[in-house]
Amino acid sequence: MLKHLLLTAGMTAAMVAPALAQSTNSGTDKFAQLGPELPTPNEYRTASGAPGHAYWQQRADYNIRVKLDDEKQAITGSEDITYTNLSPDELPYLWVQLDQNIMDKNSMTTATQTSQLQTRMPFQALDYIERSEFDGGFKIESVRLKGAALKHTINHTMMRIDLPTPLKPKQSVTFSIAWHYNINDQTKISQRSGYEFFPKDGNYLYEIAQFYPRMAVYSDFQGWQNKQFLGAGEFALPFGDYRVSITAPSDHVVGATGTLQNPNDVLTSTQRQRLNNAQGAQKPVLIVTQAEAEQAEKGKPKGTKTWTYAAKNVRDFAWASSRKFIWDAMGIKQGGKNVLCMSYYPKEGNPLWGQYSTEVVAHTIKTYSKFTIPYEYPVAISVHGPVGGMEYPMLCFNGGRPEADGTYSAERKYGMISVIIHEVGHNFFPMIVNSDERQWTWMDEGLNTFVQYLTEQEWERNYPSRRGEPRNMVDYMKSDPSVQTPIMSNSESVLQLGNNAYGKPATALNVLRETVMGRELFDYAFKQYATRWAYKHPEPADFFRTMEDASAVDLDWFWRGWFYTNDHTDLSIEGVKSYTVDSKNPEVENALKRQQINTAPKSISDMRNLQDIPKTLVDKKPELKDFYNNYDPLNTTAADKQRYQQYVKTLKPEQQQRLSQGLNFYEVDLKNLGGLVMPVIVEMTYADGKKEIVNIPAEIWRKNNEHVTKVFVTEKPVTAFVLDPYQQTADTDLSNNAYPRQVAPSRFELFEYQQRQQQNPMQQQVSMQQKEDKPTNTSAGGTN
């Protein structure tokens, strides 16, 4: 067992130094506190990471009316926006987001898209370069205040509205916007919203979002967030109440953010009864069955219905509409409140969707609530359609469709479950903990992917999670630095969004939870962050500071390495030296020396001399021998024993114990080759086969970020040392983690090389000529 741990950079073999040698500083300081990287705390945001006593945020309330044109695949809408200025500033103008303008033919996204031509290209690649002639941008018909036109300026995906008089603090203004736009075919122009056409039954399925002009965020930390939407950085939005009336074909089923306000107008009595039964159901209840949906697919009435939904204290609104929808629901209790979990999907989604979707929604709400805050919204909805995965308050769009015959692969099943968990989980990040996605994608995607991983593991034992485990991030972290960007990069500048904004932050949080902080400290601090910033606008510093403030763990080194650099983990055991204490006891020490001599390897010369020189001269002439030919210096004499006893009497009792303990000392030389300072996790295998793991905090590197030496003191001899045996730290090179070095097993395949024979141009010409000259039968038994 491990007896003592000695923090040191070196130890003398005789153990006589009065103090252990110290490391020298390498000149770098990866443990420097985050100073200039973080904003200065103030009355709005404190040094603890909590909102300050003067924290404020704006509010935007909406009354929206939209009509879906199922013949032309278009949206016509109008809205009244009540904007309340809760800041201490006067606002002479307001900024409104027109994110739909990303699909304008002259969009900045299209103009700045980069690509490369190749000698062979598929048609789809050229289509992507050229983009279609589809015009999907907003057509703003009017902007009015009390019936009078408001001056407004459209700058790509942003619109500035100039107010007649500045909006003073604590004042509100209500203005109206009317617009229309064409809906994109999501299967051809992939965006976060669109339609899918089903040729077999001639019907459409619509997943609609970013469908209305939306207020931009005005905040204490940056003023207006009016950065253009280029496609990657998603949406920064203020909270407010929504009332949305959606007019659709009369046989469509419409699902949306919020709760349905007019069920008597749009649902049959049977559907209302089923919906009521679902509130306390233990498994999903079908509100619209597959048979009913298939019957609806056959008819296309000309009439319309208007579905009205209302949602309180949300940051956005989305909806879906189709006559193809099957609809199921089940209720759960969360934080003392009822939550109705629901799914909308076409028959093409079964059997996967009917079996799993709503169950996954319910599981996600429960698990996320455990790790963050109780879910307070009344519904949570998963919709299956053409959008592979996109999130909005209370409603999300998800992919994962089985084959036409109803079969599916394991990858398809778990991919579907994972995307539903992920998108439903976005209700917490950023729909409730409302970070700025336009600036920091990782604050919603990374945190959400981390809790997604926790939720997947609670769904099924050994769930095949793609992200979260440190070993799954190794390939990215050891890749060419030119294709990496630090996590703390703007959303539109990230080179590999999936790895940078989803995978790496999720891995970092898992490492924090399992290896750096421990589950208890991490979970408490993470819940504290969610509680502090629920329904508010946190920034990275608020997260960093809260995690430290609530745990008493200094994490500046961790944020600096994982979030501000492209450093990776590669710790190496460079060497191990073994020592034992000289007991001074001649009987013990002489026996050890004799054993070393007897077990020492023979030289090749010695072995050959035994054969080539049967007898030496002294063997032939014994008269040449003297005292030293028979003298054994390792024989312990009475005088040796007497001297030892006299020496022992001069020692204190604790010193005598030191001499007789028989401890083993191992000087382990460690190097940080990847640049990322991390805890050192050492597994020691003892001579009796038993193992022990020692966890050393990352602060071991604080005086030298690159090279340290650690001394381990054990009662039993150690036969092997291994770093990070459970792959907790995303170490990118396991070949240098063991001492003695271990051979990594691998395999290669043998095959017989067969060169493909291709005709040269002359052979091709001859072959073609032979085909042309070959007689052709014109009838049975006849020839030309």
UniProtKB/TrEMBL annotation:
Residues 1-21 form the signal peptide. Residues 755-784 are annotated as: Disordered. CDD domains: M1_APN_like. Residues 356-562 form the Peptidase M1 membrane alanine aminopeptidase domain. Residues 755-769 have a biased composition (Low complexity). Keywords: Signal. This is M1 family metallopeptidase. It comes from Hymenobacter citatus.
